[in-house]
Amino acid sequence: MGGLLPVFLKELTDQFGSKRFMLITLIIVITGLFSSYTASEALKEQQFLNEEYLFLGLFTSSGGGLPSFLFFISFFGPLLGIILGFDAINGERTRGTLSLILSQPIYRDAIINGKFLASLATVAIMIASIMVMIAGISIAKLGVVPNGQEVVRAILFFIACILYIAFWMSLAILFSIIFEKSSTSALTSIALWIFLSFFVYMIAGVVADEVYPITQQSTPELLAKHESLRTMLLRFSPAVLLEEISAALLNPTVRVFGPMFETQLKGLILTPLSLGQSVLVVWPQFVALIAASVICFAVSYLAFMRKEIRSI
């Protein structure tokens, strides 16, 4: 992959210097800081100061009319990935610079790999910076220093956020390869984001109702099958995978997703799980999110390698 480093550094410089990146970063930083500030105030008002894992609550708690930091990542993360990737290839073609780059001693795969890695590094730096600021707010407002396990859980949550955004970024890059116009790739990416983030809930509910109709006389077993099918269909959405991963990592008492029978709940003591046990709870979701990101980028890679590029 000759030329990977020059492409990576050039793209990284362009990302940090672009106006659209500064705008979306400003929005996420402001909303993230305000949500964490109001969450810390809410935790203080609710007298949660003696609870364990208080630091992790900053990422999931909401207050002051603002949603949680997790909500902002779940909502704005795909938009950030789409913004960074929707014109990665067709934008270069429109400007006539792609054929010029390929005329240099740079391998074709170095271009797409460098663009993807630079965008991924940009997202990682931005999310890490916001999480560090949130940690500072927690220490200043709550006087609580996170312990080692909380730090590791926060790092795993950070990795999950990066994988989540990487999926949407890979998808946007794929559309930028398939479509000639940047506007088309952007609209297609946004349409798919709306479908997987919103309409999938309605579709999952309708399918579950058709397969396992619910009535007032329905047995607990039928209700469990209905909810299990609905949950399985919802997991086709990366947003749902991120929510489940975050729930288990940031709330150590979470040990199962989906319906549970009363016999299973009888005598159950909700003690916090260890870090390893929490990871095992959401390991399938983690693997699914990794697989979705890798497969989407692999398809983008193959599509770009087979793409015919001509000078305009």
TrEMBL record:
GO molecular function: ABC-type transporter activity
Pfam families: ABC2_membrane_2
Keyword flag Transmembrane: yes
Keyword line: Membrane, Transmembrane, Transmembrane helix
Transmembrane segments: 21-39, 69-89, 116-139, 151-178, 190-208, 282-304
Keyword Membrane: yes
GO cellular component, one term: plasma membrane
Name this protein carries in UniProt: ABC-2 type transporter
